[in-house]
Amino acid sequence: MSLTRRGRVTVTVTAVVVLLVGGMAALAMAGKGPAIIKQALGQSPSPPPPPPCPLTGEPPPGGKPVPQRPVVAIKVENTTDAYPLVGLQSADIIYEELVEGGITRFMAVYQCHDALEVGPVRSARTTDPQLLVQFDTHPILGYSGAQLAVTNALSHAGILAYDETSGFAAFTRAPAPRATPHNLFVSTPKLYARAGKAGKSQGAPKPMFTYGSQIPNPSRKVTGASIPFSTSSVADWKWNATSGTWVRQLGGKPMMLESGGPIQATNLIVQEVVVTQSNLRDVLGNYSPELTLTGTGRAWILRGGRMVLGTWQRTGPLAVTQFKTKSGQVMPLAPGTTFVELMPKGQTPTFSK
């Protein structure tokens, strides 16, 4: 029996629909089909991946959700008496700041990861609350002590600050050969426990950076960076293409942690800041530097073996610092850890090709 023209069209369309539905059903059975087809076949669509860690842009450890907790920041010594340092490999962000006598100290910031031991822990400075209020309403700080003006600044900023006396079991003293004051260490899980409900009620912090796969132009290839803080303190870094990280150098070699790995970061930012002399002095009579972290200034952003010259901007004490290209575009970082060098204005970094 022959079909009419209309009949032939109907049969053809029906056959195409059957093939399409069958094909999508086959894809759905393989886990690759549209959600509506999966649901029709009794399959649930794959759940979306969890949001990334707010301070690294990476997936949370162990496939778990982002911890709903504020940041914990630890003040860490940076002198030969303190080496090898402990726990910095777990930090999301690390800042380096100038202190008395031309030396520097680190502030390691943790949120997605924990560190059972960090240190050696040293004293706080007025720079610290300025940095920390960007992250949370009540960030947590572990430190070894501070002058009254500094503790007042921490309290006024809403920082949940704990030293060896108030932090209780979160702090421990290491045995010899480490000696006081270079033997104080702190546990981030125990510091979270010490903060209790005051820390847990805040949720996760807001992101500090924007992440993306493309490096904006113009950029130039660099293999190393040397960032001066004073006549006696220079931070040297080298690009390691194999690990895809910038590696801190000490005496021409990677600066090693007690864990056996080097201090390294996926992103390296040099932020030029105004440094003035405060009225505070240390026990040797050296004046404590005062850093201005609001306003704007030059910035050098390094990722993927390349450097982008740009600027930083922070509109107020509670605002987040933004890093932009010279054209005004927000500079995307690579997902991973970030090291921020708070270089005094008047100094100039140098870069190796």
Low-confidence stretches: 5-22, 24-31
Which H/E pattern describes the elements?
HHEEEHEHEEEHHEEEEEEEEEEEEEEE
Largest sheet: 12 strands, mixed
Q: How many beta strands in the DSSP annotation? A: 22
The percentage helix is 10-25%
Tally of individual helices? 6
Approximately what portion of the residues adopt beta-strand conformation? Answer: 25-35%
Structural class: alpha+beta
Distance between termini? Answer: 81 Å
Brief sketch in words of this structure:
The protein is of the alpha+beta class and 353 residues long. It contains six helices and 22 strands. It is globular.
What would you say this structure looks like, in words?
- The protein has 353 residues and is α+β, with helices and mostly antiparallel strands.
- The protein has helices spanning 5-29, 35-40, 127-132, 148-156, 188-195, 197-200; strands at residues 72-76, 93-98, 104-110, 140-142, 160-162, 171-173, 184-186, 210-211, 220-221, 224-228, 234-240, 245-250, 253-254, 264-265, 267-281, 287-292, 295-303, 306-314, 322-325, 332-333, 338-344, 350-352.
- Strands 1, 2, 3, 4, 5, 9, 15, 16, 17, 18, 19 and 21 form a twelve-stranded mixed beta sheet that branches. Strands 10, 11, 12, 13, 14 and 22 form a six-stranded antiparallel beta sheet that branches.
- Strand 4, helix 4 and strand 5 (160-162) form a beta-alpha-beta unit.
- Mean pLDDT is 88; it is low at 5-22 and 24-31.
